[in-house]
Amino acid sequence: MADGKPRSLSPGPGGRLGTLLDDAVWGLRAYGFIVAMWVRSTMAYRASFLIMLAANFATAGLDFAAIMIMFAQVDALGGFTLPEVAFLYGTSCVAFGLSDLLLGTAERVGRRVRDGTMDVLLTRPVPVLSQLAADRFALRRLGRVIQGSLVLGWSLTRLEVDWTPGRVALLASMVLCGAAIFGCLFVVGGAFQFWAQDASEVQNAFTYGGTTLLQYPPTVFGKDLVRGVTFVVPLAFVNWLPALRLLGRDDPLGLPDWLDLAAPAVALLCCAVTGLVWRAGLRAYRSTGS
Amino acid sequence: MDDADGAFIDVRDLTKTFTVRRRSGLLRRTATRVHAVDGISFVLRRGEMTGFIGPNGAGKSTTVKMLTGILTPTSGRLRVAGVDPWRERTRLVRRIGVVFGQRTTLWWDLPLRDSYGLVRRMYRIPRARFEENLARCVELLELGDLLDVPVRQLSLGQRMRGDITAALLHDPDVLYLDEPTIGLDIVSKARVRQFLLTLNAERGTTVLLTTHDLSDIEQLCERVVVIDHGRLMYDGPLAGLHEVGRGERTLVVDLERELPPIEGIPGARTVRTEGPRQWLAFPASASAAPLVSRLAAEYPLVDLSIREPDIEDVIARMYAG
Amino acid sequence: MHLLRLNFAVALSGFRRYATYRVATAAGVFTNTVFGFILAYTFIALWHTHPHLGGYDQSQALTFVWTGQALLAAAALMGGGFQDEFHERIRNGDVAIDLYRPIDLQLWWLASDLGRAAFQLLGRGVVPLAVGALAFDLALPASPRRWLLFLPSVLLAVVVSFALRYLFALCGFWLLDATGLNALSALLSLFFSGMLLPLTVFPGALGEVARLLPWSATLQVPADVLMGTQPGSAGAGLAFQAGWALVLLTAGRLLQTVATRKVVVQGG
């Protein structure tokens, strides 16, 4: 009847922070092996996987096809040329695609509460979020990332930017922090469904809507909208602010320069807030049930 | 680990109250408090096999959800293997196994073998122990041919056996079974029951099972815990079960309009309100007549009826079936 | 007469089923509205640099955006509706039961989809269009006659959309995993209905072909009928839609006959 000696959960010498860290590491590991299982099982149907990958690639590409058609008629949109818009498009798409790949299924909270399988997740010794985000992990979502990367790659060959190491680092951090910010939106959207189970579509406005918004230059939109996605839902940090810096353009709000480099801090802040919201959502569920 | 008095599952004055909001007009919403579990206490010793029964909506599954750490209690004390299920959920779930009869805990699209592989890693079961436990379950539950079949293609009986195996791979001290034989054919039922008896005898696993099937209880449990309207109605051997219905009766009162819960009627308490309708519980041994006259004098009555405890129906049905 | 009443009852139950999800409807309205704003701003930028692009002035282009958001759910421009349920019934074999219904299979799903569309037009279409009209200067017609023409055009749009989705759904009889097909169907619809960009803006031959394809009957034509920008006249637009509806429903009927001949009941 021995129990395989689980690690101690009482706050040891490391204290609460140590436990939290332990939990996070375990959560990530569990996420990893659940994902690995799903990838293996997807690969058993290779043909079907390739078709779905292509479908994902093509669906993502449609937005860009629409942009190409626009530029067949005009030379600039909101003062931005095609390579510049392609740069925005590519960064937005890759960041969103990565978060959708890694955390997209976290939005299935409402459905799981309705059909009672949320309870099943709670009876396993793995953080609920890890299980939820890894469940039915779909590698085909890589299609969007590939498509976005191709557009981004093309735009880089056309842009006249002097690629110093600093700028390269800015580009890399932009995509990673962007993915983190979108990931937070997926998780907050999921947590929101603990309170409103049928409202899963609201988050599409922020996730899918967000990535569509960021594909276009901020100059296209009203200043209030730009302000909203800078200070309320910090989408502007995914690509607008750092990208304007890279492209050597001013932002329409005339914000201080250092904000262009604030994406990592904003992403961290988002993760902290998201963690709190998720915990609150789960706590609300556990006190009310379905 | 166990409490000093040998209690392995210790439930004291456990309550769970939900607030249900209901639309009562175009924009108006009224909140009703529902006492799903209303102060129940019982103690299970290690190795006991207990039947947990009651009508639908009696509070069974709410209680089980609190025991498994899914739901947080409103008040009361709760210990399972010395652990507070709600505060230390992850620590608790390593020591318990849960089987929901109505829905699988397995992964719908994965073959059983892959599901078990995931369970092994989630519970960090040492490989040798895992292989040993799996081989045992496969043999006793005759799962050998099914290991490579995706869960969604299994029949109900096969799936249930698959679920029970998944719940036991990490050697839990307690096994919760929610309707483990619902919808199973006679052969599957017999196989599942025999397996549970073996498990209990050889490993001393504590088992709590909810069921609608009296023969489950007759064959498996020495002890029965009955709840109704969130209250404990009976706790003892199966033979004494017919005593149960003598608990409380319910007076259903329709008032002229929506009023706050009725108070101050001696010997009765309001257990539920819904718009102008209210439910009052009173001891089955008492006469309803003085109660009704008192109510009629103080409240604008439209209609009323007396309801015998639902649990009687359940037990009658169990014996009939 | 009896059949008509039966169909009506099926449609009504379709309407009711979607009407019960109030929160989901509100959520959908919110999302449609957000997307409407995003698209509207990009169109303003586009028409600012190139006035009269695709034969529309700016307010007509914006009207197109918001008409699209209003019809998105009703005409199932991103797929969905009955498709998922139908597939599930093919997959688990329940479709065999459907074949014994007093109404023909195609008619049954059409009636139920029309009921769904009616609810979604009211529940999810009206509010985004109204918000769009308040926030932007739209070219909505003042004459009731155009609105009267718009309604049958929307009805035909839903029928054409149904007929297309039905054809895709029937392929599920041959391919048991239909997720790829559904994705393809949504893809074609999104692009060739004009949802992303009016088909009149599509350049050259691509534009000419796109405007002849059946998907143009699901958004491009109703929007043109509403704004009075339909080449020829509104009548020509309606005839175009009706023509495609007839062709596609007939094709669906033929494919259905072949498909039901090989109903495979998938046991569990």
TrEMBL record, chain B:
Keywords: Antibiotic resistance, ATP-binding, Nucleotide-binding, Transport. InterPro entries: AAA+_ATPase (IPR003593), ABC_transporter-like_ATP-bd (IPR003439), ABC_transporter_ATP-binding (IPR050763), P-loop_NTPase (IPR027417). It comes from the Bacteria. It is a peripheral membrane protein. SUPFAM superfamilies: P-loop containing nucleoside triphosphate hydrolases (SSF52540). Its main location: membrane. It is found in: Cell membrane. GO terms for molecular function: ATP binding. Residues 9-254 form the ABC transporter domain. This is ATP-binding cassette domain-containing protein. The lineage of its organism: Bacteria, Bacillati, Actinomycetota, Actinomycetes, Kitasatosporales.
Automatic annotation (TrEMBL), chain C:
Keywords: Membrane, Transmembrane, Transmembrane helix. The keyword Phosphoprotein does not apply. The chain crosses the membrane at residues 21-44, 64-82, 121-142, 154-176, 183-206, 234-255. It holds the Pfam family ABC2_membrane_6. It comes from the Bacteria. This is ABC-2 family transporter protein. The lineage of its organism: Bacteria, Bacillati, Actinomycetota, Actinomycetes, Kitasatosporales.
